TrEMBL record, chain A:
PROSITE patterns xref list: ABC_TM1
InterPro entries linked to this entry: BPD_transp_1_N, MetI-like, MetI-like_sf, Opp2B
Membrane topology annotation: Multi-pass membrane protein
Family: Belongs to the binding-protein-dependent transport system permease family. OppBC subfamily.
Keywords from the UniProt entry: Cell membrane, Ion transport, Membrane, Nickel, Nickel transport, Transmembrane, Transmembrane helix, Transport
Organism this protein belongs to: Pseudomethylobacillus aquaticus
Domain ABC transmembrane type-1: 91-288
Chain segments annotated as transmembrane: 97-118, 130-155, 167-184, 222-249, 269-293
The protein's name: ABC transporter permease
SUPFAM superfamilies, per the entry: MetI-like (SSF161098)
UniProtKB/TrEMBL annotation, chain B:
Pfam families the UniProt entry points to: BPD_transp_1
Keywords of this entry: Cell membrane, Membrane, Transmembrane, Transmembrane helix, Transport
Top-level taxonomy: Bacteria, Pseudomonadati, Pseudomonadota, Betaproteobacteria, Nitrosomonadales
Transmembrane segments: 72-98, 105-127, 133-151, 186-216, 236-259
Residue span(s) of domain ABC transmembrane type-1: 70-259
Family the UniProt entry places it in: Belongs to the binding-protein-dependent transport system permease family.
UniProt main location, coarse: membrane
Protein name: ABC transporter permease
Membrane topology category: Multi-pass membrane protein
Keyword Aminoacyl-tRNA synthetase among record annotations: no
Organism: Pseudomethylobacillus aquaticus
Length: 303, 272
């Protein structure tokens, strides 16, 4: 477990280095790109000094790390606002959205996957397979507008976009959740099918346990393990998916902040959003691994 | 019916070819307007005999633009796949065969790249490189090689223990010969399957970046930028989004199904 914890450090360092270097990938002079052509020489020199771009790269990187350890993400070039404040303002909205999407995905994906596995190669399975294949060919920027058209514009059941009222969250969460539900269905199905052939499942049946208890009590416990891993991995990618979904539904989360900052060429904000999303992803993966180790007696007792 | 996925992919390949031909020659389909022909008297017009799929917010023919979009989507996907397949495979072969510090370095780098979920890193690269076709291709290349490198590396690691490779080594075969003649052929099947899924992923990635305004720029058509424009007029002209969305979905679905079929036919086990 300690090894896993230490193994994360080089990755975190690499993520920091890569996001730091992002600004230096800007073709030409980032300061010029940010300020536009009308800026005076003094403005440029001022911004360059403010961003520390006039110093050697390793010094800049050291400075960047030092600032981050103090929770200082710098300031927005566009509004001058404190970026840490912006993130703190936007992150909760994204987390709420991601958690609801996760709940939707679990509520749809698990039962559907179990159903498909228990009726393997018969019509419920085929239906679930077709549904999950189709959904995984529907990126958020196509599923989102489709749901919006159906439930907001034609049926009028849900708000089109924005954050007013508790129902506003449903469509973006469905958009994010459906894709994940598709993956979860396939994972649960495959995982359960594999387990159903194990000896201990046959033993459970042989000793006369009711089928319900065999599936939910015995088979699912083992089958859920790989599913948990996928779920952890996907929670992070929900944050990335939020970039497009939040843009479609005008949901003021960190994803929309990222897109807005890109449009305004507000590089420090872009950098901070990318960093926060990537680091949360790393953190979630780490937690998943630790949870997995707790859940699986084979790993728990081995270490 | 059994081979529908192949036919759908073939259909879009031909459509893309036609789209490319039309946009390069500046000609139009008989009876239709050119992809960039603006017609302000028919804004967001519904489908009719002069425009089978209707017109967009500038009165342009959606069908012609769909064809151009198909050529953009597929050529970006194919170009990026070719480049990253070559580069990723080479890196993976070297790392897997030599091991040691080269291998550790490559794994560290790919770990860092994989720490950025989904399309985030491509968005970040495209954001700093700026919009445009070339930068789009660059951003996608910078992020898409990782999967091939890791796949090749794992396989090369185990294949170098095989007897035929060790026999070649003891016969004094050169490293390039061992890698290219004795290891790479055994990797062709999994790489082909991976690349098929990769193409579907890249069609989505190109559209995602263009949707965010980071990819193909006006007046050129991309499925992503068409969807973005379409969402704005969802209420008055749902046919716009629907036409593009169903096109994209049919292509991605068909390529994925083709990937599944290839995987089963070639008996490839994927780790993820």
């Amino acid at each position: 477990m300690l090894k896993r914890l230490l193994g994360v450090l080089p990755v975190v360092f690499g993520v920091l280095l890569l996001t730091f270097l992002l600004v230096h990938l800007v073709p030409g002079d980032p300061v010029e790109v940010m300020l536009g052509e009308s800026a005076t020489q003094a403005d440029r020199a001022g911004l360059r000094a403010a961003l520390g771009l006039d110093q050697p790269l390793p010094v800049q990187f050291g400075h960047y790390l030092l600032q981050l350890t103090q929770g200082d993400f710098g300031r927005s070039i566009h509004s001058g606002a404190d970026i840490a404040g912006l993130l703190a303002e936007r992150l909760p909205a994204t987390l709420r959205l991601a958690l609801l999407a996760l709940a939707i995905a679990v509520l749809i994906g698990l039962p559907l996957g179990i159903l498909a596995a228990l009726h393997a190669r018969r019509w419920p399975d085929q239906l679930a397979t077709i549904a999950s294949l189709t959904l995984s060919a529907m990126p958020h920027f196509w599923l989102g507008p489709l749901l919006m058209l159906l439930f907001a514009l034609w049926l009028g059941w849900l708000p089109v976009s924005g954050m007013e009222g508790r129902w506003a969250m449903v469509l973006p969460a469905l958009t994010l959740g459906f894709g994940l539900a598709a993956i979860l269905t396939r994972m649960t199905r495959a995982s359960l099918l594999e387990v159903l052939h194990e000896d201990y499942v046959r033993t459970a049946r042989a000793k006369g346990l009711p089928e319900r208890q065999v599936i939910l009590g015995h088979a699912m416990r083992a089958a859920l393990l790989p599913v948990v891993t996928v779920l952890g991995l996907q929670l992070g990618s929900l944050l990335a998916g939020a970039v497009i979904t939040e843009t479609i539904f005008s949901w003021d989360g960190i994803g929309r902040l990222l897109v807005e900052s890109i449009e305004k060429r507000d590089y420090p904000v872009t950098q901070a959003c990318v960093l926060v999303i990537a680091l949360s992803y790393v953190l979630v993966n780490l937690l998943t691994d630790l949870v997995y180790a707790r859940l699986d007696p084979r790993i728990r007792f081995a270490s | 019916m059994k081979h529908w996925a192949g036919y759908v992919v073939l259909f879009w390949l031909l459509a893309a070819l036609l789209g490319l031909l039309l946009s390069v020659s500046g000609l139009a389909l008989p009876g239709f307007a050119q992809a960039d022909q603006i017609d302000l008297s028919h804004l967001l017009a519904l489908p009719d005999s002069s425009a089978w799929l209707g017109r967009d917010d500038l009165g342009r023919d959606i069908l012609s633009r769909l064809l151009e979009g198909a050529s953009v989507a597929l050529s970006v996907a194919l170009v990026v796949t070719s480049i990253t397949l070559l580069f990723g495979t080479l890196l993976g072969l070297l790392a897997g065969y030599y091991g040691g510090w080269l291998d550790r370095l490559l794994m560290q780098i790919t770990d860092v790249f994989l720490a950025f979920p989904g399309i985030l890193l491509a968005i970040a690269f495209a954001a700093v490189l700026g919009p445009g076709l070339l930068n789009l291709v660059m951003a996608l290349c910078l992020t898409s090689w990782v999967g091939y490198a890791r796949l090749t590396r794992v396989q090369a690691l185990s294949l170098r223990q095989r007897q035929h490779v060790q026999a070649a080594e003891s016969l004094g075969a050169s490293v390039p010969r061992i890698l290219l003649r004795h290891i790479l052929p055994l990797l062709a099947a999994p790489l082909l399957v991976e690349a098929t899924y990769g193409i579907a992923g890249l069609v989505i990635a190109e559209a995602s970046l263009s949707f965010l305004g980071l990819g193909i720029q006006a007046p050129h058509a991309s499925w992503g930028s068409m969807l973005r424009d379409g969402v704005r007029y969802l209420l008055v002209a749902p046919h716009y989004v629907l036409a593009v969305g169903f096109s994209l979905m049919s292509l991605v679905l068909a390529v994925n199904v083709l990937g599944d079929r290839l995987r089963d036919a070639l008996d490839v086990r994927r780790s993820d």
